Amino acid sequence: MMLLASASVSLIALIGIIFVKLNEEKTKRISHFLISFAAGTLLGAVFFDILPEAIEHSAEYGGEIDPVFLAAVVGFILFFVFEKTLIWYHRHDEHHAREIPRAQTGPLILFGDAVHNFIDGIIIGLSFLADPALGVTATIAIAFHEIPQEIGDFSVLLHSGFSKGYALFFNFLVATTTILGALFAYFVSSAVNLDTFLPIALGLISGGFIYIASVDLIPEINKETRLGHSIATSALFVIGLATIYTVAQLLPHG
Asked: 228-232 long-range contacts, Cβ below 8 Å, gap at least 24?
């Protein structure tokens, strides 16, 4: 089931097909609304499903809950450091823009996306190992986060000189690292004690989701201050939260 979920997330890379005929302004506007919904789903997954599951799993096997919250903080910090490293790397490239041709922007984006998707696959894999219902919730949250990101990646690849066909192909090829991440999580899990490892892993996932939603997505939403836009994005944010809450209530946990 985790392979099906990770493969489904990989297919989101093909969403660029929908936006081939739209201009950049329309694509950006649609993406902005999707970001609001994605932020809600990520935070909903953390507070309605992942953290409660981690705490319950830890308590069930006689562990303390403090390490779960400590792991969430560590997860937040790890994502912060990872993103800072990527930002520094890209700015370093921009500083040497005269030496680096625009065509190299595409491969850099693809490499960064491959790492990101691999981590998404690990998250999906670990979530399914903890509980199939939790895996479904995490997959939904990741999927809605991936949609605006893949739209952005597709646009960057076109800008760097890729044809539409090649942009779609390479974007999808890189997205398949999600499946590799899920497989990696599965095989690593066989070498560790899951009863001890899973609560910590879920805590790390929670910290990562909180970072993405609060640092990457919500500030992007807040750049637009028009009243109508603010109402729409706020409503979509709440709908994202409600969607995950509903899914968490409907899917029984084992």
From this structure: 232/33, 232/36
Paired tokens of 246:
């509903």
At a CB cut-off of 8 Å and minimum separation 6, what does 158 contact? 164, 167
| Number of folded domains that form the chain | 1
* 6-10, 19-23, 69-73, 177-181, range with the lowest pLDDT: 19-23
The two structure tokens encoding residue 81: 């450091």
Structural domain harbouring 189 = 2-10+26-250
16 inside domain: no
Q: Which residue has the tokens 């953290």?
A: 51
Q: Using the predicted structure, report yes or no on whether residue 193 has a pLDDT greater than 60.
A: yes
What distance in Å separates the CA atoms of residue 138 and residue 205, rounded to the nearest whole number?
10
- Cβ atoms within 10 A of the Cβ of 228, count? 8
Whether 17 is covered by a domain: the verdict is: no
Q: Which residue has the tokens 């912060």?
A: 80
How far CA 144 is from CA of 45, 66, 86, in Å, comes to 12, 30, 22
CA–CA gap between residue 197 and residue 156 (Å, rounded): 38
Helix residue spans in 61-193 (DSSP H): 66-95, 105-130, 132-159, 164-175, 177-189
